[in-house]
Amino acid sequence: MPSGLRIKSPDLLIAESGADLEGHGLKRSMGLFQLVCFGVGAIVGTGIFVGLSDTVAAAGPAVVVSFVLAAVTCVFTAFSFAELGGAIPVSGSSYSYAYATLGERAAFLVGWCLLLEYGVSVSAVAVGWGQYLNELLGNLIGWQLPAALANPPGEGGIINIPAVVVILLATLLLVRGVRESARATAAMAVVKLAVLVLFCVIGFSAFRAGNLSPFAPEGVAGITSGASVAFFSYIGFDAITTAGEEVKNPRRDIPVAIMVCIGVVTVLYCLVALAAIGALSADEVAGRPAALSLIVNRVTDSTVGGGVIAFGAVIAIASVVLAVMYGQTRILMSMSRDGLVPRVFERVSPRTSTPVANTWIVAAVFAVPAAVVPLDVVMNLTTIGTLAVMAVVNVSVLVLRRTRPDLPRRFRVPLFPVTPLLGIAFCGYLIYGTGPGTWLQFAGFLAAGAVVYALYGRRRSALSAALG
Prior knowledge:
The structure is a single chain. This protein has helices spanning 10-17, 32-43, 46-49, 52-59, 63-87, 93-101, 104-141, 147-150, 161-176, 178-205, 219-230, 250-279, 282-285, 291-300, 303-337, 356-372, 375-403, 418-433, 436-460, 462-467. The chain is mainly alpha-helical. The longest helix is centred in the first third of the chain and has 38 residues, at 104-141. The chain is globular and about 70 Å long.
């Protein structure tokens, strides 16, 4: 069978997930509440605390529409993730879904794109952490890290030490065990949600309707561009499906957790954006990475409130690093089982039931760009890679309904096939909004992935060996 057409059945994927090749499997220790908190932990972070200013710069007060447009794209695809996550409850997420429907070559390229969504976004998120850490230090003790040690080259610095530190802290927690990581993520999710609610209360207390006019200064083009930027704020919700082998009842809990997370986050983002622009004009919010702290300081005429927001941002962004690194390690673990990446990524520690070597390798590789690459350089590439993966997930639902109608599904996409088709269309629309420069970068990235598959993955494929 041609390598690109090698399809691994859902039954085989599920069977393999329950039998770790090293003799030590992952433990099912996460309940629904922990899974929802994990999802919120993976989503809410740099996108809203740091990236809001970039979204406002593109769309103006119509940023609320941009957030809704990005959310609609996520909702359509969330339905598809929910159906596939319940039908194929394994840790490979969209990589495994592509393997079960579109074949090995497509699955490898999806896994390659997930390096952008999970791996590169870890670097982007970690960069934002340093900005708010300095804001917090300034509010608490009146001292900040020198720019040379807190910013990457090109932004007035030499190396971003805080970005490396937060990746190291997340790694130490991840290698201790999924139970400990889940508890920490749950606690951090509660804290950051409380901080954002507090921001909304303060922001709306100083709301001025005049700040919303003109509502869409850049027209539809600005809203579209803003939606593509705002989409970065939603990246991570699909990380819920990477926990398929560590959730107690994955067929029930994964679909529910995805829907709850998207709903809560969308409402919260729209309220935060509206409160921000209502309290401080769009022109003042645009271009200010720590805009939320600035707004609270202005409204309360004190640095205490801004310090609280900065603290929430530090917690929020740290939890995103933790959750997204978790997702990346589980994707690599699934690819390693299939022989498409080196076997070291599938080894699970008998003491902690976690892929320790895998986690440290991921940390080491992505700490480098976090230390030296500016945030805006990686945001657009991360966004287009994620949108491409989401389009594939919608295609996978269409294919699996046709090829395996008998497969047990706890949740089914409503209004099938209209919903996944709309998901594909909206993903394409937001990809268009990223611009020609990003399209070319992404095309080069895909070409590199195809070369890696041809030279390594195709020859070492476990499925190929099994098929003879």
